[in-house]
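Question: what's this shape?

___
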Amino acid sequence: MSLDSQIKEQLTSVFGKLENTVELIYENSSHEDQKDLVEMLEDVASTSSKIVVSKNAAGNSPMPQFHIAYKGKPTGIIFKGIPGGHEFTSLILAILNTDGKGKVLDEVIADRVRRLKKNITVQSYISLTCENCPDVVQALNQFALVHGSLRHEIIDGGYVQDDVKALGIQGVPSLVANAKMFHSGRISLLDLLAKLETTFGVDETAAPAEPVNKNLGHFEVLVVGGGPAGASAAIYSVRKGLSTAMITEKIGGQVQETKGIENLISVTYTEGPQLAAQLNQHVASYPIKVFENRRVKKIRTEGGLKAIELESGEHLTADSIIVTTGAKWRELGVEGEKEYLGRGVAYCPHCDGPFYKGKKVAVIGGGNSGVEAAIDLAGIVREVVVFEYNDQLKADQILVDKLKSLPNVSIITSAKTEKITGDGSKVTQLEYVDLSINKPEKIDLDGIFVQIGLVPNSQFLKDTVELTKFGEIVVDEKGRTSMPGIYAAGDVTTTPYKQIVIAMGEGAKAALASFEDRMYKH
């Protein structure tokens, strides 16, 4: 698997910052793909004198496999398979991070990682076509480098189908420890770290390497959230000459999980990760202080200032706050949903669809996201059944027409999902009520993809500003909330139509309103 000249040229530039030698050590293997792995590693190494490829003569692997070493010691990062596709970036970042040249964890997160119990192993079962996998892989690689005795094995499930079947894996990424799956699907870095703390335990006696400064300072504008609305609000604020900070879990927000984007005016086509990277680049071009991997715990008003407390224990103050925290996928909330997550219940058709090739699946939700998911899945699975609570699909007519033209798709409307059942290892059946005749029904199937809309990320504001019964922040035409000095924009608000282009405009509007109010106040 050789790299083309353009990629090599880009890598030469990227790896120019390396100062110390990073070793890529592959195991001996008789697998037919071994030559492709060695060729890839040698091509990567050819772009920098600081990258060395060698063979572990003592080792022997049934599949292509290598690990990363630094200054003669293993880093704990092991790739079982060939990191092409979406995981090629994970390899490049792992090399940079090993020499401390990539994006490093902030000290608050790093301190929590170091407190994890010692000598632990996490196996990440991934697919090279999975768009959610790299985030999890890259986070665990960073944890391994910081922790010192955390072993992270990235395993391409295509090479170990027997293990995948034995573990009951039907979704990626799936995380395994001690031969037991403890998580499946997308997960933020903060939630991933919390899951590791629960799974492996924490050494409460470990002292921080050095005191962590919990006071992040004061800013004239604080933007909470890093999606399209947040990026827009931050850029418009800093361009007004105001000191601006952003608190976010990850730049891009919900956009990261969007596949094709064809309605962002002036951009004929883009994809979520690409747009998120462009948002990040645009924000980085301004003096905006970005605090990533953070969540707000509480906001209080102290005199004329807003005091913000983070879940990390850090705190800061601001003259005004613009909330752009967006929304997350809504769960069904029925029996069996959580029990079979990753074993028949999924939320990402792009990531997990290939696991259901030749099988029968359900898509719950008849809006745009549900119908788009059903159309995508119809090209992979044997049969798709779309379930919609209302008496007709809510998606755009052009999507509905496309769906109805597919021979392996059926639609059930007036259907209320009641229960997901399985055999203990995988989903086997969906129970629902036919609301048109109020009759309970059952349908046998192999998987269920949930696509029923979004829930606003506004829980931390429930005692601060007015919310609707659905959790949306009530805003006026300028993005003002019920609390003076707090503004909101995007999918977390009552603004109709949850669209990227609208979120960007609303973020700009809230920033301009904040600046306008500041002028009149002073």
User: Anything to note?
Assistant: The longest strand covers residues 51-60. The mean pLDDT is 93. The first helix runs from residue 5 to 14. The radius of gyration is 24 Å.
